[in-house]
Amino acid sequence: MMLSSLSIFATFLLSLSCGSHAFVLVHRPSVKTTSSTATTTLLEMDKRSKKKRPTRSVKPKGGGGFAGALRDLQTATFDYAGTVKPGKTSPQKVVLQEQGISIPDYAQDGMPKNKSMMLPWVIEVKTPEEIEKMKVSGRIARQVLDIAGQAVRVGMTTDEIDELVHEETLKRGAYPSPLNYHGFPKSCCTSVNEVICHGIPDDRPLQNGDIINIDITCYKDGYHGDCSEMFVVGKCDEAALQLLQTTYDCWIQACEFVKPGRDYKDIGAIIEDYIVPKGYSTVRNFCGHGIGSVFHTNPNIY
Prior knowledge:
There is one protein chain. The chain is α+β, with helices and mostly antiparallel strands. It is 27% helix and 19% strand. The protein has helices spanning 65-77, 128-151, 158-171, 238-257, 265-275; strands at residues 23-32, 37-45, 56-58, 175-176, 189-192, 211-220, 223-232, 288-290, 297-301. The strands form three sheets. Strands 4, 5, 6 and 7 form a four-stranded antiparallel beta sheet that branches.
């Protein structure tokens, strides 16, 4: 079980570009079997033209109207990096101020008002009082992460992990920072196998040999505390163990470098220099970030 600043590869939001054309949803009966008659859902372009474009047949997953059919089409055609695919998510939770918990400014509408400094080289220096508040938030986040990690087992869903994280965070008088941050629907991030980070908890059961990153951030008295860790589900293969060990080792080297007067830019170089000779690479699409009263703030660590 190791803290990770690096996972493997990502599965992201799916998108379908429709341009200015309208689409219609058509249900047509297919071949009749001895038990039932199947229905095929076709997504066709509603374009008044003699030239017809080919359509793609998609097997329905049980309703959902146009949105459900669109989701099924996206799932069927998206070029996934591995075997992990989005599952079904439970309804998004809401934390109200009436519950006696201080909530961030984006909790109700999903839009953060307290922004980071516009110039990336302007970095907030915390006061001793702010540092003490961040220690409280960080300690809560660590406690919640430990509880979530201990619960990881074969057959457990990431949605169940999210439920546990939500309850334990509220028990400690804190708010789960990811919840409704720019509309994020869950209270933590669970990234399985090839998903780099920010995975959305769903109903996929964890399988023997999976590796999972659980990313916890808690908001208490105006400040966020953030931490994550990798966990092994059951028994994983040697390649996964090597990845986790390499990630852990470069993280330790980076932590040991952190001292007053040293440049932020050297942190990424330390990680890169350690992992490349071992045959690994860093993820170019993401970076580390500062934290405090703002969830994601300067400095960015590349």
